[in-house]
Amino acid sequence: MAMKENSKTIFNYLKDHVGEDLTANDVAEVLGMDPRSVNGTFTALQKKGYGVREEAEIEYDDGTHKKVKYLRLTEEGMAYDPDAIEEQK
Predict the structure, then answer these.
(1) What is the pLDDT of residues 3-60, one digit of tens each?
(2) CA 25, CA 49: separation in Å to the nearest integer?
(3) Among 4, 12, 30, 33, which lies 20 to 30 A Cα-Cα from 70?
């Protein structure tokens, strides 16, 4: 099944920014999308084995802490090429 355009945009952004600590809110802000849309799309990627959410704790300048979830692509996700799949059909 072909990846929808929004899904492909999010997927490719994450693929282009491997190693960066990006939350759904970060991705949504850069791409001009709703964070709920990014979360929903990433959940679909997780179900296919292409991504994982990595929990972390960040500390603000004032000393307070917050738990966040970074979006990461798996090895399978990094190897996946949605354009190649579409061209094979």
Answers:
(1) 788 899 999 999 999 999 999 999 999 999 999 999 999 999 999 999 999 999 999 8
(2) 21
(3) 4
Q: Rounded CA gap, 89 and 6, in Å?
A: 20
Candidate CATH numbers 3.90.190.20, 1.10.10.10, 1.20.120.1200, 3.20.20.150; the one for domain 5-75 = 1.10.10.10
| Identity of residue 81 | D
Which residues in the chain belong to E strands, given as ranges?
51-59, 65-73
Q: Tell me which residue has tokens 């997780």.
A: 46
CA atoms of 68 and 21, how far apart (whole Å): 10
- Beta bridge partners, 59, equal 65
Residue spans of the domains in the chain: they are 5-75
Tokens of 43: 């959940």
